[in-house]
Amino acid sequence: MPLWLREQRWQQTLSAVYLSLPLRGARATPASIFCTERYLKVSIPPFLFEAILYAPIDDTNSTAKIENGNIFFTLYKKEPAMWDSLTLENVDKEKLQYLRENAVLKAHEKAKEEREAKKVMKEEHKKYALEATMKLEEAERKRIEDLKEKERQKVTKELELWRNQQKEADKYKSTQKERELHQEIGKLKERKNEKMNKTTIPNERTSKTKHKHTKGHGSCSMFSQNLKEEQLPAPRSAATIKVNFTPRVFPTALRESRVAEEEEWLHKQAEARRTISADLSELEDLKEEEKNPDWLKDKGNKMFAMGNYLAAVNAYNLALRLNNKLPLLYLNRAACHLKLRNLHKAIEDSSKALELLTPPVPDNESARVKAYVRRGTAFCQLELYTEGLQDYEAALKIDPKNKNIEKDAEKIRHLIQGTMQGS
């Protein structure tokens, strides 16, 4: 049999009733209190308090506070008036049973409505998180396409400028060659004229003698004289020229290469080979290109674009086993986990990517924004809106002009406020 609590103190105003109920050493919790418009019950075994209130109250705004061995109720009246007593007097058992059952039924209906409302809100949150992720990916895809278009236009302009310069250079060279050719022809003509003058204006006596004694042989002597004057030089001797080139791993010339990028690539390859030779005996059957983390990353990106998220995760897993210091691998795998609803793994991969993206520099701003947004999206889908809002605000600090992230953060704030008001 329960022990009824008969000791209570109450006061009232036109708008509220203040009730104090002693606990007598018992320990009460919020679950021990049940309150509706006309019915109030406190069940703290072995004690029990039950009251049919004199008039209806606003059970939504009414409060109960447990402290110093007492329960203090603040019950707000629906209609301002002074009550004659706290409870209804002379209530028979049938009416008491009816009011009790009616209160319990209303409480069940209200709880069912709240559950339905919470379910609808949860579905809206999921839909919103999905839309936010899709918007973010669409914005990123558009940004990449814009960058590609700008680079294409830039390369086209540079190529056109280079062609014009080549045309001008070829034109200048042809003009120079023509000028040099005219000069050479002029020199040859002058030289020929000088030779003709030397052979056609000889001494008078010599010419007469020649005319008499060498008649019919003058042309032969002149031809032989020209041959003597225009003797060709001896041919050059044959030789072999040896050319020594700088030893290089890459096929391009040193002047056409980027030393920093090549050294970074060689360092990654060496690290991958060390990892493979350490204890990954199961990778022996793979091709040489399949042991390259960059090749595996590109393969995972293609699988993600095709919607095969599990295959993309497998590619990123293998790439991380070869090189676990690449933040983009964790970042891409977090996106796959979001698609597969592996929210805790998405949070872990995003956090690992943020650890590797240090120190924060302008070159890794885009990657850090993605990491914060993807981790914040996973938090929101887990209904951890406070943590999700913190990540979205961190992304806004890096990229304050991103309107999509700002809108998503504002929606999360409204959700947090609605959750606080509902509780």
Automatic annotation (TrEMBL):
Record domain CS: where: 3-87
Signal peptide start-end: none
UniProt keyword Repeat present: yes
InterPro entries in the record: CS_dom, CS_DYX1C1, Dynein_assembly_factor_4, HSP20-like_chaperone, TPR-like_helical_dom_sf, TPR_rpt
Keyword Nucleus: yes
GO molecular function: nuclear estrogen receptor binding
Location(s) in or outside the cell: Cell projection, Neuron projection; Dynein axonemal particle; Nucleus
One Gene Ontology cellular component annotation held by this UniProt entry: neuron projection
Regions annotated as coiled coil: 111-154
Protein name in the entry: Dynein axonemal assembly factor 4
Organism of provenance: Scytalopus superciliaris
Record lineage: Eukaryota, Metazoa, Chordata, Craniata, Vertebrata
The gene coding this protein: Dnaaf4
